[in-house]
């Protein structure tokens, strides 16, 4: 009798920073940069503290909120408003992210206008929705499949991916977007900032496959991912400096996830007609730019040797790069 359902433990390991956006952004009026930390308070608790200070402070705060926001203007920052009103209280709930030193240049420390928020559950804990992981898995399989989209959609209707377990907010860092041009052969920083999971964060999911075709897809997922990475490397990564390309870790199959990982990690590469990308408002040169970000160097042991996750001295990581293991847990 054939197996009709299989359950898997899927563990994602971030190798570069990973951002799964909630659609929310924090302005400089909604976070406090102080003592080497970015503090994201519960704003309703901030409002209550302001109300406790009386109508004059409330009116001043309302004026503060009404001002046209300008980047890097100290008068626009929540921390300056609180200090001006001699509000020393900082127990407003929420969470803190420790400054890494790679968010901005030294002269602009703490001066970030908007920060893209990582998605969080109702308890304020970061997590990765099952739909985000399922979409990334589908891209892997799509690139290695001989079937059409319709047949793949049918197979994936029998694959169920849970939301991840909650993630400790201490695993969050702030990252800046960098685009690396293979033509100019240099990375360029952009004023786009995101909360992201730091490298070497483990995130746990459960996957269920509920018919034979779906089981075969998930059983072979790690092999599929390795084959897909070779295709992606030959098509895109090979055009850039090797020092910016992160090596895979042998025990994990490679996968890219989330915002900022680049077009070619979300596309069926075998079906690409590059001529379509040569014209129009968003036309790109060659195959576009390589998406990078900066974070602290991380090292690990492999076969008794100490290795680094990155090969460059500038602290560049591939945005969205991760690895995974997928192992059957039980069968019916």
From TrEMBL:
Keyword RNA-binding: yes
Occurrences of domain CRISPR type III-associated protein (ranges): 14-204
A Pfam family annotated for this UniProt entry: RAMPs
Record keyword RNA-binding present: yes
Similarity field: Belongs to the CRISPR-associated Csm5 family.
Function: This subunit might be involved in maturation of a crRNA intermediate to its mature form.
Protein name: CRISPR system Cms protein Csm5
